[in-house]
Amino acid sequence: MTRRLSSTSLIVAAIVALVALGGVAGILHNRPGGPGGAPPLAGTVAHFNLLNPRRPAPAVSFGSVDGKDVALTTFRGQVVLVNFWATWCLPCLSEMPALDRLQAKLGGSDFSVAAVSIDRGGRATAEPWLQEHGIRNLTLYLDPQSRTALGFRVAELPVSVLIDRKGRIVGRMVGPAEWDAPEAVALVRHVIAETP
Questions:
Q1: Whole-angstrom Cα distance, residue 26 to residue 89?
Q2: Distance CA 33, CA 46 (A)
Q3: CB neighbours of 137 closer than 8 A, spacing ≥ 6?
Q4: Where would you tag: which of 12, 57, 78, 196 has the fewest CB atoms within 10 A of its CB?
C-alpha cells in the first residue's frame, strides 16, 4: 500500500534536508584545516597544542653564531618555528634532519626555522654537531644560559613553538616530530596562508 505525502509534508522534508545540508557545509567550512578553520593536526603533529586565543610571543632574543643578539621580533612578518634543542638530547637530535628538510622545503621570506641550541658550550658544541650530521639549511641560534627557553617556559626538550606573522604563538609541540611529514607541512602551510 502506497501513501502519498501531502504538499506540507514535502515542504517540511525539503526544509529539513536544506538545514541538514547547511549544517554539513558549516562543519566542512570550519573543520580543522578548512577555510576559516583551525590548523590541521594529525599524524606526527597530532599532539601539537594550539593556543586559543593566540597571545604575543615573549620579547626575547637569542645569540647568533657571530656573537650578535637576534630579537625574536626580527622575524615579524613571517611564520617562524622556534625549536629548542641540545646536543645531549637524543630526541632533539632525531628530529633535526626533519627540521632541516622543512627549512629546505618552505624556508624563505614567508617561513623560517629558528634552531635554538641551549648547549652550555654554545657555538663550539652545537655547530660541529650540525656539520657532522649534514644539517645544512638551518640557521643556528644560541641560548647557553637558557634565558630564551625560560621566556617560553621550556621545561623539557625538544620543544617547538610555531609563531604567526603577527608575532603571536599559534601553539607548541613538546617532544620530537617529523617536521617534514605531510601533516606537519600542512600545519605550517596553513599558518603561512593566513591573512596577515
A1: 44
A2: 13
A3: 100, 101, 103, 104, 107
A4: 196
Rounded Cα distance between 10 and 63, Å, is 70
Query: Residue 180 in contact with residue 109, Cβ under 8 Å?
Result: no
State which fold the 42-193 domain adopts: Glutaredoxin (3.40.30)
Mean pLDDT of residues grouped by 10 in the chain (196 residues)? Answer: 46 42 35 56 95 95 94 96 97 96 97 97 96 95 95 96 97 97 97 86
Cis bond upstream, residue 97 (ω within 30): no
SS3 of 80-124: the string is EEEEEECCCCHHHHHHHHHHHHHHHHHCCCCEEEEEEECCCCCHH
State pTM to two decimals. 0.80
Q: Domain locations in the chain?
A: 1-30, 42-193
Whole-angstrom Cα distance, residue 133 to residue 55? 35
